[in-house]
Amino acid sequence: MLDDAAKALRQMVSPPLRAVLWKSAGLALALIIAAAAALDGLINWLLGAGSAAVESSFGAHAHLPATAIAWLLSIAAGLGIIFGSVLLMPAVTAFVASFFADQIAEQVERVHYAGDRPGVALPLWLAVLEGGKTALIAVAVYVCVVPLLLFAGLGAVIFFLAIAWLLGREYFELAAMRFRPPAEAKALRKRNAATVYGAGLLIAGFVSIPIVNLATPLFAMALMVHVHKRLTQKI
Hints:
Layout: H1 2-12, H2 15-58, H3 63-112, H4 124-145, H5 154-176, H6 182-191, H7 193-207, H8 216-232
């Protein structure tokens, strides 16, 4: 497993994958900025509406306290958006990966498995569907564990373990579906659940590193190509 991860890390910066790295990182960053801007706009609108409601209910003398409270809440919301953007990165990169998974897998197969039968690119709609489902589940997990972050990091541990399972599942199936139907890819993943989850833990660790996590699709997809190849050689 560690050898697979080392191979993935080395190939990430190779010339053929460098262009994919910039494209995937740029798209992930753009999506994070867009989501943060939309959330910031919504929060500011809610704070403005709340301040207006307080002033209309309690009179003009409530303007200063309402403004001060709104200002403090705005700062707290801004910090929350920054923190939330970091936690939402697994969902964003999972979706981004669906657009570049086959390009990454093809390069890994070409370099390390030139003598094997090449994989067949997935239909874009199927890859996007799989990535979108994983992203939505990741967001749902994030929403569920946020309250638990107040309890000595329990939420962070649960989030990490859940994300490891989600990302391991998605990237392994994307790699496997280049060689087999979706149902067979899912069955293979279930038969090797412990191995896939171990690889998912490595991906979850990678996506937890700020800035570096923009390259998660490259690392995760390259890693899972190696894992899939290693597992199928045992069959």
